[in-house]
Amino acid sequence: MAEPVVAPGRPRGGRRDEILATFTRHVAERGYDRANFGDVATELGMSKGTIVHHFGTKDRMLAEVQERYMGRRLEEAHAFLARLPAPEQRLAAFVHAGVRYSTLEPATTVAFQREVVRLTHEPGMETARAQRDAYRDLVVAVLREGQEAGVFVPGDARLRSLQMFGSLHWMWTWFDPQGRLPPEDVAAEFCRTLLRGLGTPDELAAVAADPHGPVATCVAEIVDQRATR
Amino acid sequence: MAEPVVAPGRPRGGRRDEILATFTRHVAERGYDRANFGDVATELGMSKGTIVHHFGTKDRMLAEVQERYMGRRLEEAHAFLARLPAPEQRLAAFVHAGVRYSTLEPATTVAFQREVVRLTHEPGMETARAQRDAYRDLVVAVLREGQEAGVFVPGDARLRSLQMFGSLHWMWTWFDPQGRLPPEDVAAEFCRTLLRGLGTPDELAAVAADPHGPVATCVAEIVDQRATR
DNA sequence: CTACTCTGCCCGTACGTGCGGTCAGTTTTC
DNA sequence: GAAAACTGACCGCACGTACGGGCAGAGTAG
After folding, report:
1. Does residue A36 sit in helix, strand or coil?
2. What is the rounded CA–CA span in Å between residue A185 and residue A102?
3. CA–CA distance from B4 to each of B36, B43, B55, B229 (Å)?
4. Which nucleotides on strand D sit less than 7 A from a protein beta carbon?
5. What is the spatial distance between Cα B95 and Cα B77, in angstroms, rounded to a whole number?
6. Measuring CA to CA, how many Å separate A100 from each of A105, A175, A183, B144?
7. Beta-carbon-side half-sphere exposure of residue B68 (alpha carbons within 13 Å)
8. Measured between alpha carbons, how far is residue B67 from residues A55, A61, A95, B61 in Å?
9. Rounded to an integer, what distance in angstroms lies between the CA atom of residue B63 and that of residue B110?
10. SS (H, E, C) A184-225
């Protein structure tokens, strides 16, 4: 029934976080359907029952992964939006952040991206879905701001947000965090093409896309800080 | 119950194609892991054994779905590349075609896009993977041509192809073929943003993106013809 | 024409396995 | 000592697929 509620006077999570992390990695590697309690338990040297004890059902475990992920991303987004005023900088920040997450927390990111679809229709995913929608709305708002400010060409903001999210969410199928291709290069190239595509003047776009520019730096500070705390 | 029909004169495949189509739809709706022989058999009013008789294993059935899909896409691609000389037209054609397929054969397209990842590592998928790589190489080649012709700004062609494929392959998560949003609008918006992002002069981009322009028309003819034969 | 055989679909069942989840009980922690 | 953490045995079920056989039509011999 009602889940463990953390525990009183207990160091945050303990074994629980460990389980969630391992489960997340398995989801990232094999997908939700092929990830199973047995393998996770074996890898952590514990019993299947322990996992059930902590999370109840597999569905709930996935829901928690998604909610934590989206929770962090929303916090970050609000943080860099507060620091970056210009629409083209804000949009670039979303791209830099999206790419950075792929290397900083590859497992969580891939797990999320593989299984996003589930939060559209699956029951028990309402919270995560609401978070996802809120995140997307932030991007749409930025796109509209940009159009009103004349820094983006007029067009369908929602469609553009989907075009952008597609590029980022698809990364899990080809991007290798251990590979030769630096994530900053990916972010920079994506930013350049996207901003130019939206009609942003070259000078502004160049600054926003620059891997060592103010936007990328700002995002890096925020994201890295949250990840290591 | 009497739906099989099949008709005299022996249509190619007979029941076999029917099985494959139903299986494809199930994969599109639930994903490969949750699609199963039992449901397909029940829906077609046949036994599970029949499916096994025709395809052997589930893996092989998926492989055949992917191979057929990529086979058709490759044929189409070669067809419109032969008719369209300019790089910006060729690139736009890939976008128009990608979107058009989502409405013309939604099940096959979604099934493919959901399960593309499998053809990277899964054994038995070598053929489909080779086809996929060939298709991607066609796009990369067009991007390079465009740079040499000065119609695209210099940059990483492979990265750009991935950015573009991301937008298209992600469509299955949000695009509804039955919905209000016309696919031509999606294609046009994607083309505009992409081509502008690559630095294509506005006049050329406008023609290539136009849903009633020569590129979209050419693609429509080729794709529709193949689908209905 | 008849009878026989061969062959490609197709059926129904049964089996093995993997997995999510239960439960009763033990150990650990505060 | 109460609550939480953990265990290991167990259940039920869903699913892939192996298997043995049925049936209808085509080819063939008499």
Report:
1. coil
2. 13
3. 20, 11, 19, 20
4. 3-10, 14-20
5. 11
6. 8, 12, 7, 27
7. 16
8. 40, 35, 34, 10
9. 15
10. HHHHHHHHHHHHHHCCCCHHHHHHHHCCCCHHHHHHHHHHHH
Inter-chain residue contact A173 with B120, CB threshold 8 Å: yes
Alpha-helical runs (H) found in A105-174: 106-115, 118-121, 126-148, 157-169
Give, in degrees to the nearest 5, the angle at Cα B53 between B51 and B55.
65
In chain B the domains, ranked by start, together with CATH numbers, are 15-55 (1.10.10.60), 66-228 (1.10.357.10)
Contact at CB, A163 and B193, closer than 8 angstroms: yes
Q: CA-to-C1' distance for A25 and D2, Å?
A: 36
| Greatest distance between any 2 Cα atoms in chain B | 60
d(CA A74, CA A125): 17
Range from A1-15, B12-26, B30-44, B179-193 carrying the lowest mean pLDDT: A1-15
Kindly report, residue by residue over B8-28, the tens digit of the pLDDT: 333 345 688 899 999 999 999
Classify residue A88 as exposed, middle or buried by CB count within 10 Å of its CB (0-12, 13-18, 19+). buried
The encoded tokens of residue B148 equal 């040499």
- B120 chain-A contacts, CB cut-off 8 A: 173
Tens of pLDDT, residue by residue over A146-184, are 999 999 999 999 999 999 999 999 999 999 999 999 999
